[in-house]
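Reply to dn_fold:

You asked what the input looked like. This is it:
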Amino acid sequence: MPLEPTTHRPDPQLSGTSPVASRRRFGRGALLGLFAVFFAPVMLAWSLNVWWPDWHPFGETNHGELIRPPWRIEDPAMLEAFKGRWALLHIADRECQAACMTMLDTTRRVHISLGKDYDRVVRAHIPPDDAPQGAPEPEVDLLDLPLPAGWVERFEADEKPFLLIVDPQGYAVLRYGADFSGKGLASDIARLLRISKIG
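and this is what came back:
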């Protein structure tokens, strides 16, 4: 009687291809995938904040100097004058000389360029305490404000004139020196207005 050929069938338990083993591998892979999706971005953000605090995403670099942490304007009269709007706040040198005049002209042009967002922004001028009160030439869209208490000490060492962007809650968030770019300022304020839910 001839013998029938036999086929060797490996034991799935020994070969590691059993349904149980496959499910275990799938479970581990799914767990690693969930970790990557939810925790990797958090770890990346933490690493960037700790090791590269000045890093910005491409295309999101501010042209002004970021004020860290933002400081709040506590002067009630100034906040009332802003009426919950974004503010381009000029800190002038004595008698507002050439650089100061150029700054006022540049911010006026930037303000006009905002178009439909024009009314969301206000311009304000603050002369130093030892300068004659008032902007050099009255402008319809320029608030002329007195120097708030405590500002002499805060800005005593700063080179003047300079410009601050103040948010609708009264926090100064960006600072610009006298040689700032009007195009850069326009880019910064346009982005702030675009992402802002207030003001």
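DSSP finds seven helices and six strands in the chain.
Hope that clears it up.
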